[in-house]
Design goal:
The complex is a heterodimer of chains A (97) and B (140).
Chain A: E1 3-7, H1 16-23, E2 29-32, H2 45-53, E3 56-60, H3 61-66, E4 76-78, H4 80-89, E5 92-95
Parallel strand pairs in A: 1-2, 1-5, 2-3, 3-4
Chain B: E1 12-17, H1 24-38, E2 42-48, H2 69-79, E3 84-87, H3 88-93, H4 99-104, E4 116-119, H5 122-130, E5 133-137
Parallel strand pairs in B: 1-2, 1-5, 2-3, 3-4
Helix pairs in contact in B: 1-2
The chains are: A alpha/beta (97), B alpha/beta (140).
Chain lengths: 97, 140
């Protein structure tokens, strides 16, 4: 049983990212979209937490691009068809509303 | 497109939207829904809950230089003959009424029309049972 976790809130405004990482299983993946992509700001605390966590990390390419951020080599940028495929590859999708 | 589809790979999605039309997550929901259909999948129902009911509101006026999400949703649901359900309780408390509800509660403004249907939360439960995946969009 695997879960795709979807985050869209900025990691600088609440504790969703930390809460999510706490429950993230080995088979799970994390997708960052919207303001959650600010977690990939190099040198920031969430960036370092994610880098160290070694999770299956995906990011919506257009949301990252809109914020002038780059995809680190330990994450994979996807488009919406990739989002659909990810949701199929996992048994459940949990959006952190 | 059809050539790359394997037998049995068509997935049934239920999509729930919790945010208003001006929230970025509403646009993400629409782009996901479009990508799901483009990938040959099926959307069993779109359920608009909480502030998501504003996406079905015909009286929303979007600034000219912004994405008109209510119009885009309306076109998407109509063109693809999808089941777009708006939570009736969430809609009533936000003043988002169809003609029938406007008459029932003696209000002068009806702002929900076809292709939308006002119905209960049971429709979300029913869609979740029917679908392979429930995808929720909301918040930021």
């Amino acid at each position: 049983m695997s879960t795709l976790h979807v985050l869209s809130q900025s990691p600088f405004g609440d504790n969703r990212l930390a809460s999510c990482l706490r429950v993230l299983g080995n088979q799970d993946a994390l997708l960052l979209c919207g303001d959650a992509t600010y977690a990939l700001q190099p040198g920031s605390p969430p960036f370092e937490v994610l880098q160290a966590a070694g999770v299956n990390l995906f990011v919506l390419a257009e949301d990252l691009q809109a914020r002038a951020l780059d995809t680190p080599d330990w994450a994979e940028a996807i488009d919406y068809s990739g989002f659909v495929e990810l949701s199929i590859e996992h048994d459940k999708v949990n959006t952190w509303l | 497109m059809a050539a790359v589809l394997l037998i049995g790979s068509v997935m049934k999605f239920a999509i729930a939207l919790f945010s208003a039309a001006h929230a970025p997550s509403s646009r993400r929901a629409l782009l996901f829904a479009q990508a799901a259909l483009a990938g040959g999948h099926e959307i069993v129902r779109l359920f608009f809950y909480q502030d998501g009911v504003y996406n079905a509101c015909a009286s929303v006026v979007t600034p000219q230089d912004e994405q008109d999400l209510p119009q885009q949703w309306r076109a998407f649901v109509s063109d693809n003959r999808l089941d777009g359900v708006v939570c009736i309780a969430a809609a009533l408390r936000r003043g988002v009424l169809n003609e029938e509800e406007a008459q029932r509660y003696q209000r002068s403004a009806a702002s929900v029309e076809a292709p939308w249907a006002l119905s209960g939360l049971g429709q979300l439960h029913d869609a979740i049972q029917d679908a392979d995946r429930l995808i929720c969009f909301g918040g930021a």
